[in-house]
């Protein structure tokens, strides 16, 4: 509870700093403070990839040696507020997914802090789904895993399936998930996650995998989720998705936050950088 109090306090400070109070109260949902995330990879030693180099590594291996560190997020600080949709952009390997995992509490901070107000839910391309179970069972399991009751799942079941559009081309929802295309699976994952109002919803690339029609539908849902007082983080390599859904964007490069500002301003810089 101390964290909630602290964030409330910070909200007031920010409100003062921002001049005249905005129409809605500025309630922080996620605060990252000089956050550093380091992955430790065991058994990965430096050296050339030749067979002799590999043999040498095995023969000369020291106990406790061979730990490589990947410094994936370097001193990132920002505050996200309720009602904001925030885009996360940057090259491959720049630390976007790592940052979201840290916010979700799945990765420990090497140093610095992450405070969250409410329960963050991470909806990633790898979100857990049981491939051998039918889409139907996955909807139920996914709903229960998000904390819905059996009755709530039953109530929302049809709208989840309709939203996903899985059944538009036949009765696919009763087939095992492993028979779905990657786009179909991503759509179902998004539909399950979007069936609940989240305090903090983090979407990693999910929108980019659907077709045009589904993209439009999911962008609309992201806007609704935002209005329903949550905070949405969206990672995407599709600048249009970011433009259409987010008013604020964070740009990460090599683990560092290079720009945090209004989407149009940040994307302009980013597009200059990527040469588009
Ligand atoms: N499980 C892991 N173990 C070790 N290093 C990792 C792990 N996951 C990611 N990394 C490293 O951390 C860095 C950031 O990776 P991350 O997945 O966060 O990038 P990203 O911005 O999401 O990239 P993309 O746009 O390709 O999804 C990369 O250098 C990557 O190699
Ligand atoms: Mg990623």
UniProtKB/TrEMBL annotation:
UniProt xrefs under SMART domains: AAA (SM00382)
Gene3D superfamilies: P-loop containing nucleotide triphosphate hydrolases
Keyword DNA repair: no
A GO term, aspect molecular function: ATP binding
Keyword Transport: yes
One Pfam family recorded for the sequence: ABC_tran
Disordered as annotated region, ranges: 1-20
ABC transporter domain: residues covered: 53-274
Keywords for this protein: ATP-binding, Nucleotide-binding, Transport
Record-linked InterPro entries: AAA+_ATPase, ABC_transporter-like_ATP-bd, ABC_transporter-like_CS, ABC_transpr_TagH-like, Bact_Polysacc_Export_ATP-bd, P-loop_NTPase
Similarity comment: Belongs to the ABC transporter superfamily.
UniProt name for this protein: ABC transporter ATP-binding protein
């Amino acid at each position: 509870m101390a964290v909630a109090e602290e964030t409330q306090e910070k909200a007031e400070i920010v409100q003062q700093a921002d001049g005249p109070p905005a129409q809605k109260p500025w309630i922080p949902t996620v605060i990252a403070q000089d956050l550093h995330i380091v992955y430790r990879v065991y058994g990965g030693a430096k050296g050339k990839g030749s067979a002799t180099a590999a043999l040498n590594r095995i023969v000369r291996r020291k106990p406790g040696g061979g730990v490589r560190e990947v410094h994936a997020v370097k001193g990132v600080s920002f505050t996200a507020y309720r009602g904001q949709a925030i885009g996360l952009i940057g090259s491959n390997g720049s630390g976007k997914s790592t940052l979201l995992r840290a916010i979700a509490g799945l990765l420990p901070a090497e140093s610095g802090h992450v405070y969250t107000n409410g329960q963050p839910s991470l909806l990633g391309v790898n979100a857990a789904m049981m491939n051998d179970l039918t889409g139907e069972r996955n909807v139920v399991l996914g709903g229960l895993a998000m904390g819905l009751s059996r009755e709530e799942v039953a109530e929302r079941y049809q709208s989840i399936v309709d939203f996903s559009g899985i059944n538009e081309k036949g009765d696919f929802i009763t087939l095992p998930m492993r028979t779905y295309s990657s786009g179909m699976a991503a759509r179902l994952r998004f539909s399950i996650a979007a069936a609940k109002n989240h305090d903090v919803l983090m979407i990693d690339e999910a929108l980019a995998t659907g077709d045009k029609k589904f993209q439009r539908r999911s962008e609309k849902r992201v806007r609704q989720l935002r209005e329903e007082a949550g905070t949405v983080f969206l990672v995407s390599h599709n600048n249009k998705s970011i433009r259409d859904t987010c008013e604020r964007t964070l740009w990460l490069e090599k683990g560092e936050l290079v720009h945090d500002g209004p989407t149009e301003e940040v994307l302009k810089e980013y597009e200059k950088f990527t040469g588009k």
